[in-house]
Amino acid sequence: MTLLLPDILLVVLAALVMGYDLYKGNNSDSSLPFHLSWVGLCGIFVLLFCLPYDQTVLYLGGYQVSGTTILFKQVFILSTLFAVLLSRPYFTPGGSQRGVLKYQGEFLFILLLCTFGMFTVVSARDLLTLFIGMELSTIPLYILSGFYKNDDLSVEASTKYIIMGSASTGLLLFGYSFLYGAAGSLTFEAVAQVCMANPQEPLLKLGMLFILAAIGFKLTLFPFHMWAPDVYDGSPNPVTAFISVSSKAVAIAFLLSLIYGPLAAMHNFLEPIFLVLAAITMTVGNLGALKQTRLRRFMAYSSIAQAGYIAMALLGDAGTARSAIIFYLFVYAAGNYSIFFILSIIGRNGRENRSELQGLGKSNPMLAAILMLSAFSLAGIPPLAGFMGKFFLFAAAAEKGYYFMVFFAALNSTISLYYYLLLVKEAYIVQPANEPAPLVIDGMQRVSLLVLTAIMLVAGIWPSFSNGVLAVAG
Amino acid sequence: MNGPFLLTMIWVVPFITALACLPVRVDDHQRIKMISLIGNLINLLLVTILTCKFITVSAAQPVADGAVASLFHFTYKVGWLKMMNIEYNIGVDAISVLMMLLTAIVIFCGVLASWNVNNQAKEFFVLLNVLVAGVYGVFVSIDLFTFFLFYEIAVLPMYLLIGLWGTGRKEYASMKLTLMLVAGSAFILAGILALYFESGLNSFDLQTLSQHHFSDSFQYIFFPIIFLGFGVLGAIFPFHTWSPDGHASAPTAVSMLHAGVLMKLGGYGCLRVGMYLMPEGAQMWMDFFLILVTINVLYGAFGAIRQTDLKYITAYSSVSHCGLVLFGFTAMTFTGIKGGVLQMISHGLMTALFFCLIGMIYGRTHTRTVSEMGGLMKVMPFLSVAYVIVGLAGLGLPGLSGFVAEANVFVGSFSNPGTLNRICTVLAVLSIVVTAVYVLRAVNDLVNGPIKKQFATLTDASLLEKVPVTILLICLFGMGILPGWIVELVNNAVHPIFNNLMR
Hints:
- The structure holds 2 protein chains of 2 kinds.
- Chain A is mostly helical.
- Chain A has one domain.
- Helices cover 74% and strands 1% of the residues of chain A.
- In chain A, a hairpin with a 4-residue loop joins strand 1 (56-58) and strand 2 (63-65).
- In chain A, helix 3 (67-87) packs antiparallel against helix 10.
- The longest helix of chain A is centred in the middle third of the chain and has 32 residues, at 152-183.
- The model of chain A has no long low-confidence stretch (mean pLDDT 89).
- By secondary structure, chain B is mainly alpha-helical.
- The model of chain B has no long low-confidence stretch (mean pLDDT 87).
- Chain B has one domain (3-501).
- The radius of gyration of chain B is 21 Å and the shape is globular.
- A two-stranded antiparallel ribbon of chain B has the order 1-2.
- In chain B, helix 13 (310-330) crosses helix 17 (401-414) and helix 14 crosses helix 20 (484-501).
- Chain B starts with a helix and ends with a helix.
- The A-B interface holds A 323-324, 327, 361-362, 365, 376, 381-383, 387-388, 391-392, 394-395, 398-399, 401, 403-404, 406-407, 410-411, 413-414, 417-418, 421, 424-425, 428-429, 463, 466-467, 469-471, 474 and B 26, 79-84, 120, 123, 145, 148-150, 152-153, 156, 159-160, 163-164, 171, 175, 178-179, 182-183, 185-187, 189-190, 193-194, 196-197, 222, 225.
């Protein structure tokens, strides 16, 4: 029971937020739900550190808690926490050029529920639970992406997301039907037995291909990445940040638990597929980002490329791939959220275009420095955490002898460095045509940015971070 | 102070210097410059102590003639990241000590030469010191991972240093330079990971890896990858194009440091990682690279003839002279490799002085076009004489450092009996003639002839400016007249690398 405490608390937290909202009525502009959420999330984050890392199976083998699941849950909680903090100014008048969001209680409730879905995905030990978790973590995002209810872009984003998302759910279930057909059961053990007995089983292969297509949608793998730029651009900023981190993390957690769990025996069959998908995805993402001037579209393409790097680690062995990916998710979350916080700050005064960054180096050196560090961390420049993260991802692929894939990915990083440098150039080198309006940074944003920067600076070089991840997940 | 601690301090001090600059008020330029100067002076002292200690230690422990393992002194190793068993693993041999000495001298002079940077001085000196920390870090690491980490730290600040404080087409040049160098590190990264996993030793330690005999087919593929990767920073043809643009656009101190020291990281990596770990690969590929670097040497020299901008002339001559470093290595003879190492030092001093002088001249005339100048000897005799001397060092006049290095390179290269080596040596020697053409022509246009009216009131170097020039001149003469101890040290370090190459 104590093992499930974080999951239970998360649901309780969501219920409290919702309950308070119902009790006070929708138009309440009380900040209690907000404070309740972030304090609760911090509490759950700390609680997760206190749990034992041994694998424990609960509920007739349908649910498990282990070191890996705890680490993933920490990624999710961290991401939700920053999404909550990021969302605050959007619910206060004057917080964003795009207008004020309403129904904060509802927003937070949906966000927390979505996180619970993600918890379910990492802990699931049969296909049905896995599916339910996946849906629970996806459907709330459809609502959240359309949270600007009168904004065309936001509604468009939501619509596109629903249509693409439903199609992918269909593919996922279709894939499941093949696995069920082969194994006659939905538990991981049954599927694993069939897979061990006959890794060449065509039904399993076919099923896995469909599942991969469905997950490719969530992970924005080529050719299922098309929705990302529009949805990222149209959704409210905190939702975009949440989608770019959590939604990717849950997709990769889903894949990890399948391909290193019941389907481990057919890893050989999947390797060339991952190889091609990862290679194309990172190239498409990087080339797409080159010409973007709207920063949220830019981040969409950048995160597509990052998905390519992450998928590359799936080529490696279970332990290496898991620890590399989890470590990378932490640093990727830090880099991405840091950029989105900066977007929320500049979004107070204007559109989130790249040219809005001009003159930042002089008018606000601290913010410009953080922007540079985040961009460099995402590009994988040492000694920032992003470098170590990428190094371990590449190492996971190199371990199996895919040296040329590493070479290709490293060259891709060079392309990505170009557009990350464009951000730095805009902030430091380009002289603004007219004096930019002074930026307002509130305390919450300041603290969040400092925490994120600290993670980026320290996580790579302070050994206990990566050593800890390795010890738990490896 | 014990050796390993000294080594760590040497790369930590610039970081501390950079951090110490942060709390200073933005417009208090004087204090920021003083902090940088003091930090780098301390480092110069530390490196000097290190050199003295090293000479004593290596005299006590001479390298055996047949040794195949590089002898690193002051080694220290401690586990760092458990993933992939990455270690903080430091140690130096003679090459790295000499390169650190070069770095310390060049950056100390560089800080003095950039005393007139007043635009965002704080950011400038912070980035400059971070860059220097990276350079020292490369020279002290013998773990491939930390080596690569510091290597990248040394490359990246360059983007802002050129983009913000540069001149001319600075945005284009800085982007080109950064991207080409990072693309080079993509080669290196793939190579390092391949070395790690192929050896199966679960170690990035250079000495451990050198014990492993990599299969010939592996070396055949990965030697050129590593060599080209580092070669990009060494401006190997056809990946040299970042160098003229980058060096011409960079501010004075950055040009000095980049052409003087950073380009040497390329040659250093080629030797230490490429040729030391994969000797069979080196044997297989040397003819190919020999041709490339011969083109380098000639192309750089002829390119310099065509240029009218002083900085471009020097930048192209850097391509040519840095080519000689790799040319020495590709000779695959003991003398040749030794010459290459000597050329790294000699060229570092020479080109730093070149860029330093050009910066000072440009600061006065506000033009770098050779034909617009003339008669500067009359108004600035000190700078002009220094320019003439460094020009002569460039074309290898005996008594100056260039002669020692180039003589070794060419003798070493010609002593390889291969026909291709002989032909290439003859061609490369021709570059000296071409060098004479562009150096003497620039000198002639610059310092001789009637003085232009608008330049008649210019002043000679101030005392502050004379200091770096004098230091570098002394080093140039010192290495030219008393090369004995340097050659002795380099001999010690090259022996094992060469023996390993011929195993």
